[in-house]
Design goal:
Length: 474
């Protein structure tokens, strides 16, 4: 139960994956912790409006699409229907279960959870505006800023959360099954497109760059392109929005392509997914003397300390990459440093996954980055068409690739594309962190038949031939 305090040992502003991880770990290390967030329970955008509800809906989309593909395997479900209200209820049930669980964990650790907002009065105290009751001041010894980020809007086009939507608003699923324009073909744009296309919306996508997932290696992107012609046919590349006008119940959206040609089309809704910006406004950072960079991210060191050494910042508010698992790791580092433990934020690699169907996953150095850095590497690829497990899943287009240093033979990076590709990236991440060489991956016995064998066989190819793949020697 929340108790009103006038001082605390450690205060954490924001209860997302970074904030609650920091709070839980600091409490486990014996600190008195106050955790502040507007939501009823910890979880942040990730659990309430981002990672978790998105993945729940992506699971629904995947099941529906598999039901259609099952005809190839001799199973015909005749028709697959969706009850949108029940889908919404299930999504909300998942969110409620997980956030409620975090609330119980918070109570079990005797964390003082304050539902409300906070602003720095100076570098030793906050002004708290609780969900209920009057404002009050809270003095602290240490503070952690974990306020996250929010969707960036198109220049001159503000979100109205009814027709011009962020992903957060779209996940409420209010009348989303008409003509939907998705702006951006990155992480969020692709996942949202897969969801609403599967649920029945008429989805169109525009992307400013020349391909999906800017920065992703082309061979991985190609797996998605070959697997999803239903979505690729709906994407217009090197195109930008130049104006959006409301016309009755419709949006009149004007595009301009790379040749400068304009076209106007009508949509029911527009989902904007062009990036995120940190939540550093209205925190009183200037009053506390905390420095931010040119992009408004809080500046931090390897311990996640700001220029005020007793104030830390973690997660999206502290800079790229804007990923929940990175925030959680930073939260633990900050809690450990506050507790006097020997620690530092120094990951060699941070994995990324796009939970589309098929999934795209990578970690460490990409082939594209190696070329940009003019770094000599050896790239080995194992096609999933040669994988017994992939074939039994009806997944023949997938790919596993390894980026290896030719001199040290160390694994520098890895990429995966295909069904369940995200399940393979942890092994590659651990290998990079442990300084593993290709021989370590080759000699590790992987269970058969699994997709993990593709990592072993890609490593085998570094030394010549893989058991289930043959490359003719010249």
């Amino acid at each position: 139960m929340t108790k009103k305090q006038d001082k605390t040992e450690v205060v954490i502003i924001g209860a997302g994956p970074g904030g609650y991880a920091a709070a839980f770990h600091a409490a486990d290390l014996g600190k008195e912790v106050t955790l502040i967030d507007p939501k009823e329970n910890p979880g942040g955008v990730c659990l309430y409006h981002g990672c978790i509800p998105t993945k729940a809906l992506l699971h629904v989309a995947s099941v529906k699409e598999e039901a259609y593909h099952a005809k190839e395997w001799g199973m015909d479900f005749k028709s697959v229907s969706l009850d949108i209200n029940k889908v919404r209820e299930w999504k909300q049930k998942v969110v409620k279960q997980l956030t409620g669980g975090l609330g119980q964990l918070s109570k079990s650790r005797k964390i003082n959870y304050v539902r409300g907002t906070a602003r720095f009065k100076n570098d030793t105290s906050l002004t708290i505006e609780p969900h209920e009751g009057d404002k009050y001041e809270l003095a602290f010894e240490k503070a952690i800023i974990a306020t996250g980020a929010r969707a960036a809007s198109l220049p001159g086009v503000d979100f109205d959360h009814e027709r011009i939507l962020s992903a957060e608003a779209a996940l409420e699923m209010n009348d989303m099954l008409g003509d939907l324009l998705v702006v951006g073909a990155g992480y969020i744009g692709l996942e949202m497109s897969v969801i609403f296309h599967a649920l029945g919306a008429n989805v169109s996508i525009i992307e400013l760059t020349s391909g999906i997932m800017p920065g992703l290696d082309e061979d991985l992107a190609s797996v998605f392109k070959k697997s999803r012609p239903d979505l690729m046919d709906r994407i217009r590349f090197e195109t930008k929005v130049t104006s959006v006008k409301k016309s009755g119940k419709k949006l009149k959206v004007t595009f301009e392509d790379k040749e400068g040609k304009s076209k106007t089309e009508s949509f029911d809704k527009m989902l904007v997914s062009i990036g995120e910006k940190p939540n550093t406004e209205n925190l009183g950072l200037a009053d506390a003397g905390i420095e931010i960079d040119q992009r408004n991210f809080v500046k931090v060191n390897e311990f996640r300390q700001t220029n005020k050494k007793h104030i830390y910042a973690i997660g999206d508010v502290a800079g790229l990459p804007l990923l929940a698992h990175k925030a959680s790791h930073e939260g633990r580092v900050a809690a450990e440093h506050i507790s006097g433990e020997k620690t530092a934020y120094e990951p060699k690699a941070i994995p990324g996954i796009v939970f589309t169907e098929p999934e795209l996953a990578w970690v460490g150095l990409t082939e594209k980055e190696a070329k940009e850095q003019e770094r000599k590497v050896v790239v080995t690829k194992f096609p999933w068409s040669a994988s017994g497990r992939a074939t039994t899943l009806g997944e023949n287009i997938g790919l596993t690739k390894l980026i290896i240093d030719p001199e040290t033979e160390r694994l520098l990076g890895a990429g995966f594309a295909g069904k369940g590709a995200g399940s393979l990236v942890p092994e590659a991440t651990l290998a990079i962190e442990m300084g593993a060489v290709a021989k370590d991956l080759e000699l590790t016995i992987h269970p058969h038949p699994t997709l993990s064998e593709t990592i072993m066989e890609a490593a085998e190819m570094f030394y010549g031939q893989a058991t289930h793949s043959y490359k003719r020697k010249r």
